[in-house]
Every structure is written in structure tokens, then in C-alpha cells.
Specification:
Layout lengths: L1 H11 L16 H4 L4 H8 L4 H19 L5 H12 L12 H17 L2 H6 L20
Helix pairs in contact: 1-6, 5-6
Length: 141
């Protein structure tokens, strides 16, 4: 369970040493996903909490829309709770104990409702998901 919790926390707050190269402080979803997984993680470490939240939410929303037809009502309700954690004010460092508790509770429910690969695909480690055409259903929130 701790390993899974660490993965979720890592997915929400990837922090580390930035590269020496100067990069923009913000990036949009499509350009972010042109990077490979390691490049995304490195770049994520260097952008603002607001941009981090925007990227994570955009990816999450696209994942939900791409999978909506096969998700159960319980899964859809759970993704709403998961999305609520993905806001800029939830990216503080160090991570607060209360936030760790929230993440742990949601992750426990996630493990019952989703496969590990589904959970991975919901994070910035997941594959690029093209934007749905105009007129598609809205986001899960």
C-alpha cells in the first residue's frame, strides 16, 4: 500500500532537481505530451503549481472522456473525488499530513475500482490523449 501511495503522491507532486537548460514556466497539454515520459517528469518539476494542476486536470479529463462509455457509475463518482485533489493549492511542498491522508483514502478506493494500469494512465505518466471533437461531453467535474 505504501508503494502505491508513494506512486500517487509522486504523480501529483513530482519534485526533483531541474535541468540546467532554461525552459518556459508554463506549457500546454499538447506540447507537454510531445516529451517522452522522463522528459515530462523533468519538465513538470520546473513549472508552476498552477500549470502542473492544469496539465494533470487536462490529461485526467481527456482520460475520463476517452473511457466514459465503459466506466461504471461508481468509477465516475470516484473520478470526481480524484479530480478534486488535482488543484494548484494541492501541490505544496512539503506535502501536508492531511493531504497525504486524503490521497491515501482515495487511492484505497481507486485500487478497488480501477486496475493499476488505468491508474497509471490517469497520471502524467500515461499516454497522450487527443482532444475530443467539439460538441463532445464535458469534463467529470
Amino acid at each position: 500500500m505504501r508503494k502505491i501511495l508513494a506512486f500517487v503522491v509522486f504523480s501529483l507532486w513530482v519534485v526533483g532537481v531541474g535541468s540546467a537548460a532554461q525552459i518556459p514556466s508554463t506549457v500546454d497539454y499538447d506540447n507537454f505530451y510531445k516529451l517522452n515520459e522522463q522528459g515530462r517528469i523533468s519538465f513538470f518539476n520546473q513549472i508552476t503549481p498552477e500549470n502542473r494542476a492544469a496539465l494533470v486536470l487536462e490529461h485526467f479529463d481527456r482520460w475520463v472522456e476517452a473511457n466514459r462509455t465503459r466506466l461504471t457509475p461508481q468509477q465516475l463518482e470516484q473520478v470526481k473525488a480524484y479530480a478534486a485533489l488535482m488543484t494548484a493549492h494541492k501541490y505544496p511542498m512539503p506535502v501536508r499530513d492531511q493531504l497525504l491522508k486524503e490521497v491515501e483514502e482515495i487511492q484505497a478506493r481507486n485500487l478497488v475500482l480501477f486496475s493499476r494500469e488505468e491508474l497509471r494512465q490517469m497520471t502524467i505518466r500515461g499516454n497522450y490523449i487527443p482532444k475530443k471533437a467539439a460538441g463532445s461531453a464535458g469534463n467529470p467535474r
